[in-house]
Amino acid sequence: MADLNPQQPPQFEKAEYLGQPGANSCAFCKQSISNQYYRIGGGMACPSCAMQIQRSTPVDSHGAFVRALLFGAGGAVLGLVLFAGVEIATGWIIGYVALAVGFIVAKAMQMGSGGVGGRRYQIAAALLTYASVSVAAIPVALHHSSEPTAQHETVRAPGGSNSDPEKPDAVQQDNGAPSGADSAPAQSEASRKPRMGLFAVLGYLLAIGLASPFMDLADPIHGAIGLIILFVGIRIAWQMMAARSPQIYGPFETASTPTP
What we know:
This protein is mainly alpha-helical. It contains eight helices and three strands, in the order E-E-H-H-H-H-H-H-H-H-E.
């Protein structure tokens, strides 16, 4: 009970209510709420702010999802270049780059969708992140295969004779026929073998690249660590593409103020 001041007479014209100040005020515009209010994120909101937030919330659509896929594919290519470039430049397999790839893919998808998220966006982000990291093994393998190797070439003396004393100067068969006579059927057989087309080669490389994270399990320790880091990168993309739309509940009626 409040202490009474004998020097100040009590006032009955103005009623004062004890309670939490601002309990019936909007959490966004800080204005008092008189009749109706909404609940947004656990806070009270006036009808005006609730309608404004609802209008400003990005709406999911087919066009937004397509743009998110296009931007996400671009982010996946950028992540592939980053992942492969770091490994080629340093010679080290730095799996932690997969975390950056997940962030890049999700950020690109957010830019394309205008901030829209949801389950299908999460699935797309996870698949693009996995594809970006796994397919990065293809340019790395091509780089290593193109590195110069020591080749032993046959050294010939001036005049075209072979420097190996065990081999005759003129390459002849036992029957006196040149070696090209027997090599012609072999060349014709090789020419008759079916060759893989460009799309078949690309499909084969893509399949190998997508399976590379599991093929690395041939080295169990490093393969398992790589898969765990890749999973964390995918989880980053998954969480970033979750739906961010605020849940608006209401309207609710405010409690009537007691009459003094």
